[in-house]
Amino acid sequence: MFKRLKLRATEPEMMDDLTTGGEELQEALVHLRRLNKIFAAAGPTVYGVHKLWIAAGKPGSLTVLDIGAGSGDVNLQLLRWADQNGIALEITLMDITDEACREARKLFENEPRVQVVRGDLFALPVQCADIVTGTQFVHHFASDELAAAVQSMREASRYGVVLNDIHRHWIAWAAVWLTTRFISRNRYILNDGPLSVAKGFRSSEWKKLQSELADSNFHISWRPLFRHAVVIPK
To answer: What is the pTM assigned to this prediction?
Structure first.
């Protein structure tokens, strides 16, 4: 296991296969919310958005575009953060799959501050949101695709980008492997949960991305539980 985690895994997750899906994928999105709650997945995203909000002068209104949002559950905590700080927050959840968009619409059906759209990262309008976020999103890209993906996110933002992704570590892998088997029998969860850790990042790989983007305004923070918050101001 230690050797396997030395480098990022290259095999695709089941969720990356857009020819499959249906009810099993929709169930997986519900179970993924349980994992996100157990492992405090929203924390690094809120941390990063808060940093960019302060850097922008604490504006009274804010727009956030969450790319690869899945059912968008991490944004529940972001809405609470906005309420606590008196911010008029509008969130757009974007995903490429119909299943994710359906599940997000169900979760936020009574929340007027959230809209859900189906869309593609590489077809985003320039500066279409104040902040663009990606929670457990960019690990789906191969290392040689990463810079183009993040650059597209950066161009779509006015204030900057927040990346929240997994620290590749054997403790994180073991914890996710065990937890997935306690909470689910869904094939997507059992396969993609541990694999997402193996496709995660170490600090050196974020620094390599920083070099590829030629961006000195690049802040990498380790956050609980085994996550990195990468904040890229504009």
So the answer is: 0.96
